[in-house]
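== Item description ==
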Amino acid sequence: MHLSPVAKNFFHIFFIFMLPESYVLAFNMTRDSGSWAKQHPDRQVWFLLTAGGMAEAELPRVLLRQYPNLHVVDVDLEDLFRDSPLVPLFTSRKWTREDTWPVELLSDMLRVLVLWRWGGAYSDTDVLSIRPLTLPINALGFENPGLIGSAFYSFHAQHPMLLDLMEDMQENFKPKLWGSIGPLAISRVVKKICKKNLKELSEKAPTNCPGQFTLYPRRTFYPIPYDSYRTFFKPGGGKDFDEIFKETFTLHLWNKMSKGTEMKVNSSSIYEVAARKVCPFTFQIVTAESDVF
């Protein structure tokens, strides 16, 4: 399947995956895109691959049969960037330098570009949807009082904020600065449009900005900060899950820090409780013959 049939401004949900390892693909697809497909059966969930065809892994095939609104598609980067505001940055190839983070930098560009073209929501592959999105589109969330997160956001196609963001990405690209065209770029543009500092805006969140988008507090999308990622895996931590996350829509698992962490079944951690609630099909498969996942 290709992206050509995607309609603009239908509330699509996009993931982007750029590594070819079949196990990693299977794990990310089942854990995260499965949660989004389950929570949003009336919306189309697109898993975009930039590293060639889908790996021959059983879990993705099973998941696709379970959720008819989940689609895995190969993306032609040249076609996607063609005639877009990001052509100069993409064709400069500065983001491919070995002393930078080419995968992360390409992902930063792609997430903005797919929303610019088609609209909807973008989610990192380590973000779980724990309840259906009922918030208005054109939404960003605070990761902390001084930074807007880039692991999840939503916009209408052709939204002016996205154009401002792509222009900022080209003007302020610093290949050796982590996040220069990711969270740092989003934060710069928000400050410029809202004409206020981020700390002041975070204290008022949820709050609207003149650019017709809403900034949500940390608890909405990033309730557990990256330096507290172990909280997800603490035994017994999920016993009051519904009360703890009653105002939360997504959980960012911070996979760069948490990858490789094993959880025992029946540990009642936040991670396990979330997996049982929003990925029951996947959880059953992964734990069928193992007491760790």
